């Protein structure tokens, strides 16, 4: 499987970001330029010697060698045995996924902006889909199963959010070149879009409702740059069966201890429960009032309440993004080739030697 980096193994070639350091084969362009210089230098030497017939044969040899090298490079690009230097194929796939992801976010932003009242439901939809994960059996998680579980008590009132995503999916699939988007990915990215909207709305509110000033404030102090890891977790597969019942509490009726137990069961804790208060029902203030009565949750609730009063809201937003990222990866084996499509191959039949 060619991931983000399908590469040639060579010690010391990778920099801090996994990009090839200086190397004679660090890029196809550099390799091809080297071939051209080599060919030109040898041909000029032969011309100077006046060996016309020998020159004709040698030119053919050099052209054949250059074509052979190009074909060899194409074969290396398609190989999954090499690690170390990013190939053109990897960069193409990364660009394809990035462009598709940007289009998805645009579609979701417009859909959510048209129905802002569904933001709490979209957040709960993402939480309830992911928190079905069971560490012992490695089942459940952010697998899109919630679309098959709406009749359960814990998912009451979430049908409107799923309807919005179903309509958005039709539009997304219509322009996708790499196959339909999974509900598992769509649900988590909708939660991301909903959070970004809530972050931006908070910045606008701090500017007295002035949208232009609010956007400027969020651009300067917001946490948009913290989404990098979340964005790379892209390529979840949909399950075709509902997850087992009883794994998700009815948040509005569950005790704080029951909520803590559920978070602990998936590897989280009171800190993450406190920061996810907006995901636990439509009334965040009422949820926090319940959580603050618990000694384990109280310091975290108070911390995030103070953070939301600051200009940057850094503690709250960064911890919330981090927690959603963890939840969205539960139970997932990410396919890093998802939504990519084949790059153009060399047609050997059209080569003129």
From TrEMBL:
<keyword id="KW-0560">Oxidoreductase</keyword>
<dbReference type="GO" id="GO:0000302">
    <property type="term" value="P:response to reactive oxygen species"/>
</dbReference>
<dbReference type="GO" id="GO:0042744">
    <property type="term" value="P:hydrogen peroxide catabolic process"/>
</dbReference>
<dbReference type="InterPro" id="IPR002016">
    <property type="entry name" value="Haem_peroxidase"/>
</dbReference>
<dbReference type="GO" id="GO:0009535">
    <property type="term" value="C:chloroplast thylakoid membrane"/>
</dbReference>
<protein>
    <recommendedName>
        <fullName>Plant heme peroxidase family profile domain-containing protein</fullName>
    </recommendedName>
</protein>
<dbReference type="InterPro" id="IPR044831">
    <property type="entry name" value="Ccp1-like"/>
</dbReference>
<feature type="domain" description="Plant heme peroxidase family profile">
    <location>
        <begin position="105"/>
        <end position="277"/>
    </location>
</feature>
<dbReference type="Pfam" id="PF00141">
    <property type="entry name" value="peroxidase"/>
</dbReference>
<dbReference type="GO" id="GO:0034599">
    <property type="term" value="P:cellular response to oxidative stress"/>
</dbReference>
<keyword id="KW-0376">Hydrogen peroxide</keyword>
<dbReference type="InterPro" id="IPR002207">
    <property type="entry name" value="Peroxidase_I"/>
</dbReference>
<dbReference type="InterPro" id="IPR010255">
    <property type="entry name" value="Haem_peroxidase_sf"/>
</dbReference>
<keyword id="KW-0630">Potassium</keyword>
<keyword id="KW-0575">Peroxidase</keyword>
<keyword id="KW-0106">Calcium</keyword>
<comment type="similarity">
    <text>Belongs to the peroxidase family.</text>
</comment>
<dbReference type="GO" id="GO:0016688">
    <property type="term" value="F:L-ascorbate peroxidase activity"/>
</dbReference>
<dbReference type="GO" id="GO:0020037">
    <property type="term" value="F:heme binding"/>
</dbReference>
